[in-house]
Amino acid sequence: MSDELAGKRIVLGITGGVAAYKAAELARLLGKAGAQVDVVMTAAATRFVAPLTFQALTGRPVFTSLWDVPQDSPLPQPPLRAPRLAMHSQSAAAARSMLRETPPLPRKGQGERGESQRDFHGSGMAHIDLTRGADAVIVAPATADFIAKLVHGLADDLLATLCLAKDCPLLVAPAMNCQMWEHPATVRNMAQLRADGVSVLGPASGAQACGEVGAGRMLEPAELFDALHASFQPKLLAGKRVLLTAGPTFEALDPVRGLTNSSSGRMGFALAQACVEVGAEVTVVAGPVSLPTPTGVTRIDVTGALEMREAVKSALAGGLDVPPTRQKSALASGLDVPPTRQKSALAGRHIFIAVAAVADYRPAAPAAHKIKKGAQTLTLELVANPDILAEVAARPDAPFCVGFAAESQNLAEYAEGKRRAKKLPLVVGNLVQDGLGGDANVVTLFDAAGAHPVPPGDKLTIARAIVRHIAEMLHAQN
Ligand code: CTP
After folding, report:
1. pLDDT the model gives residue 477
2. pTM recorded for the entire structure
């Protein structure tokens, strides 16, 4: 886990939806990553989850009323607040013991009282103080009603008011019934919200609390965490379109059997996520893997090498010759990428990263029916598959091409040999025993300047390092 969120001040707004319970996990993840989380709840949200839960998870008071005064404010609290106790400031230690929760990890820059040095400026006005010095406001879940309020600039409760008064990025994670999500009023509101520069996270599709099925589910806490994390990454590939291949290929032998390999697709998917985080428009052509599509990535599922090659050619040409169902999961999990943009995102590519472990050979003549057991030996006739990466790199309009070399020995020699043979600016080399299937990897980058070892880490951390290297090379080219 990188530490981009350590020391960040995040305001987590919670509105009144069933998904409010998921915000507790988001608060926990943010705290674990070292962020300071100030929770602001609408009155409706407190009917779904008690403020005490968030106080215990964040170790900080929870704000629910416009008349709350931040604890650190040097100003006297206004008389209105005294009888209402709207700021839920019960001792965090007591709350934790009541809930038997694990306390949040210690944070960077904590003072003697456990409060951040970057705390409130203390104007005595919660709607101002909470966002001054904050790095982001995220509203999760954001109900249809709250979104409508944001669009119209209403300020009739603390959360809506601070969203208006904030001077930092605002992210919202809609959560509502699918009919409400599709209602023309919501569609209009979402368009306006995006036009106002708000980042919209999700929603996802699936079974809803009301029993209906459709778009409107709040993204999962881990997805929201990733999106927030991504929002802090420098946009090194802003405006760039990236195409990747990932996973194994499956070369059919008959309707139930085939040749494949043990590539998990995780490195390719981690790279797709790392590219999205730094502002690229990303499409991944994936062999048969069961990984979830990273938020914001368009996914095209394929099976064999020939199908992968066609999908790559099609994406490079700006079209997409795959049935719409193949794209469905990607569109459903898309991070604020409306369908019209999905289409245009497919036109042309700046960067091609071939991570897939493409089978070098396929059965010459796959059987139409299941091959029956017979003789003691069976000889398969295989024919060579096209080398997708070499073909793309040889195009006159070739994008910046990155290859992978997964070797079991002689890494430097083989990786550099592939770089030269396929005429690639960059090859990522690794020893299969270090990375295949697991979540960690050890890689070395090979370019014209030589070999650059990357510190070992989880695949996402390594993917981010590879993306930084690609961005540096592209920058140096221009
Ligand atoms: N690759 C590809 N199409 C193929 C074979 C490989 O696009 N038919 C790409 C891979 O995605 C990877 C790079 O080429 O980026 C190297 O793949 P690898 O399998 O390691 O090497 P090969 O070139 O196939 O050589 P060998 O199998 O002999 O090591």
Report:
1. 86
2. 0.74
